[in-house]
Every structure is written in structure tokens, then in C-alpha cells.
């Protein structure tokens, strides 16, 4: 399958003041578009043309760096837009997800601390994740376009810590971006949906 850029599921200014329209215009229209355009070029002749995006990500990892970087980032960003919503965040999580966070990660506050620390501690570009792996939740981080799919896990929530995600709004203050993102933007219903699908 060839890659195509999905529309944002909300208006460009819908996440302000936590993420500005200018950031979303650059991040979605320029950066994500570039992953789609370059990924499609690199997909041609790769032998993976007929595969799903998830398969392309997993099968190009460690073998075709150019294709992997773009396909990985395409996958990551498709979900990133859906991991946010206007009036998101808060501490009121769907019950099953909350129970799993309590039993696997020591409760919401500990999970929040660990997730933010993973994002702040990722040296250079990358992502912090809530991952479902081997029947339980874990907090992880990855560099560049890498994601939990290539480590045998399912990403349930991921935050983009590339500078293009926060520099216009927060300059170098990555921890401030991470707090605002987690507390005011996360779409917990989408996280719960992915958790439900992964834990069946
Ligand atoms: Fe990004």
C-alpha cells in the first residue's frame, strides 16, 4: 500500500494554547507530508509494496534504514494526531485502562512521572511510549522514528519529542511541553481503544 497523509481530526487551532495552529501546520503539512512523500519513493522497488504499514515498519527495521525511518514516522504520526484532542488530558481514564495502569505501572501519578521522564530523557529526537507487551503495560522510549512495534510491543500512547513538535510553542523547554501535552491534550478514549484491541 502506498502512504497517504490523513487529515487532522480537528481544526489547526483546536489544541491551542497547548499546541498552536502554527505548530500543527508545520508538523502535519510539512513534516508528516515529507515522511509520506519520501516513504512512497523509498517503498518503490523495496519488495514491501504490497504490505500493510505495520508490516512495512517491522520488516524494514534494521534492513532498509531510509524506508524504515519514513514508514516508522508515518505510522507514529498517524497515531500522534489521534492521541490528542481538544479538552483532552485529565485524570479520568476509562476503567479497564486505569486498572491496568494501577496494577502494572504503580498508579496514574507514577505512570505520569515515568512517562514524562522518558520523554525528557530521550537524548535527541525520538518518542516516549505507553506500550502493551507480553500482556502488560510498560513505559519506554525510542530514538528517531523507531517505535514499540519493532520491539514486539503495541504502542498505546506516544509523544513526539522531536523539536518540530514543540519548538515554536515552547522553544527548548521540552519538559513544559510534555506536561502540557499529557495534562491537557491526551485522548484517553483512543488509548483505551488501542488497549482493548491489544489485550483481547
Ligand atoms: Fe513529529
Helix and strand composition category: mainly alpha
The small molecules bound here are: fe (ii) ion
CATH class of the largest domain: Alpha Beta
Alpha-carbon distance between the termini? 27 Å
What quaternary form is this?
A: single chain
Strand content: 5-15%
Radius of gyration: 16 Å
Query: How many beta strands in the DSSP annotation?
Result: 3
Q: What is the CATH topology of the largest domain?
A: minor pseudopilin epsh fold
Explain what you see.
With 200 residues, this protein is mainly α. The protein has 2 domains: 21-82, Orthogonal Bundle (Helix Hairpins); 95-198, 3-Layer(bab) Sandwich (minor pseudopilin epsh fold). 50% of the residues lie in helices and 12% in strands. It has helices at residues 21-43, 53-60, 65-82, 95-105, 108-121, 167-170, 174-184, 188-198; strands at 126-133, 136-143, 154-160. The chain has a 3-stranded antiparallel β-sheet with strand order 2-1-3. Strand 1 (126-133) and strand 2 (136-143) form a beta hairpin. It is globular. The mean pLDDT is 98. It binds fe (ii) ion. Fe (ii) ion binds next to helix 1. Fe (ii) ion (FE2) binds next to helix 1. Residues 2-84 form the Manganese/iron superoxide dismutase N-terminal domain.
